[in-house]
Specification:
heterodimer; A: 0% strand; B: alpha+beta; Uridine Diphospho-n-acetylenolpyruvylglucosamine Reductase, domain 2; Uridine Diphospho-n-acetylenolpyruvylglucosamine Reductase, domain 3; 3 domains; five-stranded antiparallel β-sheet; four-stranded antiparallel β-sheet; 14 strands; 24% strand
Chain lengths: 116, 276
């Protein structure tokens, strides 16, 4: 690990981004394909007060081709988060939530569908 | 950036403000009264508003009052939502205001500005509809006191050149049991999917709504159903929702079906709580 603090910050930021994508961020289009949420007033991202506690830890596998065994980190933090959120909420609601963003209305719709 | 140039005036009396409006109007300056400015500024930036002049009413002494006077609480139109929340003279209004936009905006948004907003939610009007507030309005015809339930019909219906000076609420209403709930699509700070203010006055439940219809309202017909205490709560709530003055909207916040589900749950728990 060349820069542990930067790496932790990167992964935490990515996890926050993943949670935002999983729970609220999406483009909404009208029937004639005009974008409806064109500002941060209507395209909502996770606010600072909504951030949960992030636990970041490492399994270090040196990349022998890289300098000092280092490898790029980039977006690893994002990848699993929507799925983790979807799995947790699916389990809680008792229905398969397989699309994002998972907003309360979506959970309600899936629960209603399952009743039919 | 705001692309139109406009003149800024800050009169110190009601009279001055009214005369200024008439003068600016006659000289083609398309004046608008200015409270906190959040809407004028944000709409100006989007090029959705064009004006030649604004008249800030916050330096008019009558618009700056926030106190009990005799049998009423008097709130000046230039008082901010944050000031109302911090004074907590009127807890229901304090709570409703504290969920409009975010805290930075609440520091700027005035009561008068929220009531006259062009954005449809106008959540600060709900507590006033429930408490039969009196709206003091000034304009070319002089100063008038109007019952809120007369002057507010979907939006504030003022004559040209008029502005809200004050809102007066009778003291007993300030301590009646109340509930305020706001639900959004997802985030705490957002436009309402549904906002409900409810109050129990003389054993009768009163309720007012934002974004249940495309305008805020209080409905006597709905209240009558909600108060039919011989019937089970669920049935009363269903009947009340069917009496909403317009269809439940399908909008960016929710589908009308989900809105009905949320509304039904909230009203059921509100009625149960206020009757309990």
């Amino acid at each position: 690990m060349l820069n542990p603090k930067a790496a932790k910050g990167l992964v935490m930021g990515a996890m926050g981004m993943g949670l935002g994508l999983g729970s609220r961020e999406s483009f909404i289009y009208s029937a004639d394909q005009k974008l409806q949420n064109t500002s941060l007033r209507t395209y909502k991202v996770l606010r600072i007060g909504e951030q949960p506690e992030y636990l970041v830890d490492w399994v270090e596998t040196p990349n022998l081709a890289g300098p000092y065994g280092a490898r790029g980190l980039a977006e690893h933090g994002i990848l699993g988060i929507h799925a983790a959120l979807a799995n947790a909420l699916s389990k809680a609601a008792g229905v398969e939530l397989d699309q994002i963003p998972i907003i309360p209305q979506l959970i309600w719709e899936k629960v209603e569908e399952a009743k039919l | 950036m705001i692309t139109c140039n406009f003149e800024y005036y800050r009169p110190t009396s009601i009279d001055q403000a009214v005369r200024l409006f008439q003068h600016l109007d006659q000289t083609g300056k398309k004046p608008i009264y200015y409270g906190g400015g959040t809407e004028i500024i944000s709409m100006g930036r989007m090029d959705n508003i064009s004006t030649g002049s604004v008249i800030d009413i916050k330096e008019i002494p009558e618009c700056r009052l926030l106190e009990i006077r005799g049998s009423h609480l008097v709130i000046g139109a230039g008082i901010t939502l944050t000031q109302i929340h911090e004074s907590n003279n009127f807890p229901l209004l304090a709570q409703a205001g504290a969920r409009v936009a975010d805290h930075t905006m609440q520091n700027k948004i005035t009561l008068g500005g929220n009531l006259c907003s062009t954005i449809v939610y106008r959540e600060a009007v709900l507590p006033l509809l429930l408490t039969d507030a009196e709206i003091i309005v000034a304009g070319p015809r002089g100063t008038r006191a109007l019952p809120i339930n007369q002057v507010f019909d979907q939006c504030m219906n003022l004559d040209k050149g008029e502005f809200i000076v004050q809102v007066k609420v009778q003291k007993p209403f300030l301590s009646y049991p109340y509930v305020h709930v706001k639900r959004t699509r997802q985030d705490k700070i957002h436009y309402p999917l549904v906002t409900i203010c409810a109050l129990r006055a003389d054993k009768e439940i009163r309720a007012a709504f934002s974004n249940v219809c495309p305008f805020p309202f209080r409905s006597r017909a709905m209240e009558k159903e909600l108060n039919r205490s011989s019937e089970p709560v669920g049935r009363r709530v269903d009947k009340a929702i069917n009496l909403a003055p317009a269809g439940l909207p399908n909008d960016l916040e929710s589908s009308s079906a989900y809105r009905r589900f949320v509304l039904k749950n909230l009203l059921t728990s509100i009625v149960t709580e206020l009757e309990g």
